[in-house]
Amino acid sequence: MARIAKRLGGFLLVVLLGAVIWLAVKPPELLRVGTGYAAKIVCSNVFIAGREANAVLADDVQAPGHPLLRFLNKSVDRNSRTVTTRIFGFFAPSIAAYRPALGCANIHEGDLRPDIPTAPRIPAEPLQVETDPAVQAVIEDAALAGPGMRAVAVIRDGKLIAETYGAGFDADTPLLGWSMTKSVMATLIGMRIAEGRMKLESTDLLPQWKGDDRVNISLADLMAMESGLRFDEDYGTVADGILQKLERRSICSSS
Question: What is the pTM of this model?
Answer without folding.
Answer: 0.70
